[in-house]
Design brief:
The protein contains 42 helices and 2 strands. It is an all-alpha fold and about 950 residues long. A two-stranded antiparallel ribbon has the order 1-2.
Length: about 950
């Protein structure tokens, strides 16, 4: 037994079974008796494969830059070990997989997206998105940014995608070359089964005994593990996808024990293998991922069907599956079956709205489809989705998503093939389709022509996992998660080799090519150069990631609420103390953290944008507490524009004299904004900042402001924050019609920006005429119930002594609440809405409508304590003591210790006693008051 093989088995912790190999090992023509160096090199190859399968998913699924760096190190190191091993032999061999042309074409496509091209070729290849770059394509425009000579609109992301594509290609080729027999395939399947089982067990333990942090010590702004099983994944859907990828190998591992028993050979730990299936199934369910559960069932169905077809699925296996189902049901009964049932009910309901609440996925799909068709030849650059999609993400076109509009901003399109089409065009989607078809040929063709049950079962496991992966990518994007993609690459390589092993000896020999030693040496040199370039580009992101995560933890609300990257000042103020020093320290802490990010990773576009906004906030704060001159930034810009300084030195001297030395933070903000726009030309927020700071550049300031604003609106035509900023500029320019148009567009962009618009405009449009201002809001924006609530609360807060909220606003508020209550119809929510309407009518002074609302609340929810009590008080005011007594008795029967209800009952008794006395004195025979009945 060779040293490399021992390392392989010891690392796995599993010794091979004793049955004979049905499919013979392919003869390696390079070396019959490997030496010690050869063994060490082969061990390095095996270690790289082993490390990639187990370690990359553990590092936050490889979405952390450290996980990506580790994958690159292992892949490049393993590939170098393989080529060096081949270069030491007189003659090297190359095993053809038929995927090499597709991988090469994909690499060439991404390279074309990144290299400068002639203008004529660019104009033909570019799509609609690139034509929005007015500051890059127009001549003699104020504030011109230069030229954009490449196809990709997000070159940093495209470069990172190219690096990962090269890593996956190397990894695939390495595994194809490494697998020499069916035994090697089975070891890889066992590795995947163990990885899935281990991740599932870790996810369950972390969910049940966790403290809300990854690995009990790591806090991540981009993920949460409090409500569902996530393991080391930032997204529970990706965690479930990883387990679905392992479902085929796990079931194969269990059925393989049954196959061994049928062959009368030993099978180690069959109960443990079936327990692994129970653990993985339970973890999938507790991830609360509907898509993950569905594709796991699909994988299970495929492998069970293959097992039944080849005659391995017998009574013993069915009994074991029944035992697994029983264990899962018992475990669910103990740990969160209610949450699982609620999530799975969405499938049973069959409603699209229940599966896609707020139409979030459908809205993103619509925008991505539009982007793909408008840039259909070669796309807009791999990884550019989050920059390009907002160009077409008009959330106002879907009436059902207004509550969540503004939160659609995500890194991916929730549909893998659709995003590939958007980012790489027709060429990319053709290549992806070819890969899927080729994988199908490997899986189905291998099963069809195989005469070995052992090989067919292995192919069934691979087919199950690949089918689950393909299906899940239609509603999500786990292909972009390295921790998942590594497993997919392994499965594809295994499918390729199983297909080759299922053929006869002639076919297997035809798939190997003998190559001279110089070829392996040249490949080693190329790997050294390419691998060094790949690794060098990932050092910066790894060192910067911890600081970026710290920043997101400091102001996570600003990241989530504002897709454009414009940071509202109240976010900083809410995280600081009430003192000015506390606010300043909060802003400076964020600036220091962001500076650490860009120092280590100068190409971090998002950090540059956030830094520009943070420096502007610092300037505004310094101005607010300045004893020299407290003029805002807009006033500074107007003063500079009116002064007409002839040189930069004159401008700097005036700023230092008029404002103070803290004006220099404005120059820092401008540099970071320009860096962000240069690195990613569709960063709308960067152009907003450049418009606010263009007075530092000289020239025609008014023309520059208009040019920057035009570019910002072209890059983010549906972003509410950009539209609000552009509206402010229109107000400064005196163009109120333009400002109103932009306000309306911002209002339609989602709830977040609606609330921001109300916060900015209430008390500013017509401060001396609240009624006229309300008319302006109601007539132009047609606010719905949530915004009417905010308007009413805001006007109550700013109302002066003796003033009141305008009557029209409260009437519109009452009508909206009633309409909402009518739509809800029944239940506690409807009752709460009627109670809310009652309060509005009380403020309006309409007692009759208020009582009617209370009665409707009781009709919707007869057990509403609040409705009974409020109706009793209303009846007391209307002197209907008998009705008041009835409702108070109901309240006291439910809450005997309610002192307020007891006091009101005593008031009712006294009033009734007084009325009875009055009736008796006046000798009124029709008096209905009976104090004895009341006392009873």
């Amino acid at each position: 037994m060779s040293t490399a093989t021992k390392i392989w088995w010891i690392a796995m912790g599993i010794w091979p079974s004793r049955h004979k190999t049905i499919v013979p090992r392919e003869h390696d023509i390079t070396r019959d008796k490997p030496g010690r160096v050869d063994n060490y090199l082969l061990g390095a190859v095996d270690f790289s494969i082993l490390g990639s399968i187990f370690s990359v998913p553990l590092l936050l699924a490889g979405r952390h830059p450290l996980g990506q760096l580790l994958l690159l190190v292992l892949t490049v190191g393993g590939s170098l070990a393989w080529t060096i091993r081949r270069s030491l032999t007189p003659q090297a061999t190359w095993r053809i997989s038929m995927a090499e042309p597709l991988l090469l074409a994909a690499v060439v496509l991404l390279v074309i997206q990144l290299i400068p091209l002639p203008d004529s070729l660019l104009e033909w290849l570019r799509g609609d998105a690139a034509r929005t770059l007015h500051l890059w394509t127009s001549q003699d425009v104020p504030g011109r940014m230069g030229t954009w000579p490449i196809i990709s609109l997000a070159p940093q992301e495209t470069r990172a995608s190219l690096v990962m594509l090269l890593a996956y290609s190397m990894f695939f080729i390495l595994i194809v070359q490494r697998i020499q027999s069916l035994t090697d395939v089975e070891r890889l399947l066992r590795l995947i089964a163990l990885a899935a089982t281990g991740m599932a067990a870790f996810g369950l333990v972390q969910l049940l005994f966790g403290n809300g942090r990854y690995f009990w010590f790591l806090q991540q702004a981009a993920g949460s593990i409090e409500s569902a099983a996530c393991g080391s994944f930032l997204n529970r859907n990706h965690f479930a996808h990883f387990l679905a990828l392992g479902m085929g190998p796990v079931v194969w591992w269990a059925l393989d024990a049954n196959r061994n028993s049928l062959a009368k050979t030993s099978a180690k730990y069959p109960a443990l293998r079936w327990s692994a299936l129970a653990i993985v199934s339970l973890a999938v369910l507790l991830s609360l991922s509907r898509g993950g559960a569905a594709v796991s069932v699909l994988a299970l169905a495929v492998i069970v069907f293959v097992g039944y077809r080849i005659g391995i699925l017998r009574a013993r296996s069915l009994a074991a599956m029944g035992g697994v189902l029983f264990l899962v049901v018992v475990a669910l009964a103990m740990f969160g079956h209610q949450h699982v049932a609620e999530r799975m009910d969405d499938w049973l309901g069959g409603s699209v709205e229940s599966l896609d609440r707020g139409a979030q996925r459908r809205t993103v799909w619509m925008a991505t489809t539009t982007a793909a068709t408008q840039n259909k030849l070669v796309g807009t650059g791999a990884g550019s989705h989050r920059h390009v999609c907002p160009l077409y993400l008009d959330t106002a076109t879907n009436d059902g998503n207004i509550e969540n509009a503004g939160r659609f901003f995500s890194a991916h399109a929730d549909n893998g093939p659709l995003e590939v089409f958007e980012e790489t065009g027709i060429v990319g989607i053709v290549l992806l389709t070819a890969v899927i078809v080729l994988a199908g040929v490997w899986c189905l063709g291998g099963i069809y022509r195989s005469a070995s049950r052992r090989l067919s079962l292995a192919l069934g496991a691979v087919s199950a996992s690949l089918a689950a992966s393909t299906a899940h990518n239609l509603v999500d994007c786990p292909w972009y998660v390295p921790g998942c993609t590594v497993i997919v690459v392994v499965l594809l390589a295994v499918a390729c080799r199983l297909f080759q092993l299922s053929g006869d000896d002639t076919r297997r020999r035809a798939q190997r090519r003998a190559l001279p030693r110089t070829f392996a040496r040249a490949a080693t040199l190329v790997l050294l150069l390419v691998g060094g370039w790949m690794l060098a580009g990932r050092i910066g992101p790894v060192t910067a990631e911890s600081y970026w995560n710290d920043y997101r933890l400091l102001c996570s609300t600003s990241i989530s609420r504002d897709a454009a990257g414009i940071l509202p000042s109240e976010v900083y103020e809410s995280s600081a103390t009430d003192s000015n020093c506390g606010i300043k320290r909060s802003i400076e802490k964020m600036i220091d953290t962001l500076e650490s990010v860009v120092q280590r990773d100068p190409n971090h576009t998002d950090a540059h944008v956030q830094l520009a906004g943070a420096y502007l906030l610092l300037f505004e704060h310094e101005q607010a507490i300045s004893s020299l001159n407290q003029m805002p930034l807009t006033a500074v810009r107007e003063a500079v524009s009116a002064s007409g300084f002839k040189s930069r030195r004159e401008l700097e001297d005036w700023l230092s004299l008029a404002i103070g030395e803290h004006w220099r933070v404005l120059e820092k903000a401008r540099r970071h904004a320009r860096a962000a726009a240069t690195q990613s030309p569709l960063q709308g927020a960067a152009y907003i900042y450049l418009a606010q700071l263009c007075f530092l550049e000289g020239g025609d300031i008014t023309a520059r402001v208009q040019a920057y604003m035009k570019q910002a609106l072209a890059a983010r035509p549906f972003d509410g924050a950009i539209l609000l900023a552009a509206a402010n500029e229109a107000v400064l320019a005196g163009d109120f019609d333009r400002a109103l148009e932009l306000w309306k567009r911002s209002y339609r962009s989602g709830r977040i920006h609606q609330r921001e618009l109300v916060r900015r405009l209430v008390g500013q449009i017509r401060p001396q005429d609240p009624a006229g201002e309300v008319d302006f809001f109601l007539d132009n924006f047609l606010p719905d119930l949530p915004i009417l609530r905010q308007l009413e609360k805001t006007y109550e807060a700013i109302a002066e002594d003796g003033a009141d909220v305008p009557m029209r606003l409260r009437q519109a508020y009452a009508d909206a609440v009633e309409a909402e209550a009518e739509q809800v119809a029944l239940g506690q929510k409807a009752a709460e809405l009627w109670l809310e309407a009652r309060l509005v009518y009380v403020k309006l002074g309409d007692q009759r409508r208020a009582v009617a609302c209370l009665q409707r609340a009781l009709q919707c929810n007869p057990s509403s304590y609040k409705a009974h009590y409020r109706l009793a008080l209303a009846m007391m005011e209307m002197q209907d003591l008998a009705e008041a007594r009835r409702h108070l008795e109901w309240c006291l029967a439910r809450k005997p210790g309610d002192h307020s209800a007891q006091q009101k009952m005593e008031e009712v008794l006294r009033s009734c006693t007084t009325r009875e006395t009055t009736c008796a004195t006046a000798k009124m025979p029709d008096c209905q008051c009976d104090s004895r009945e009341l006392i009873r």
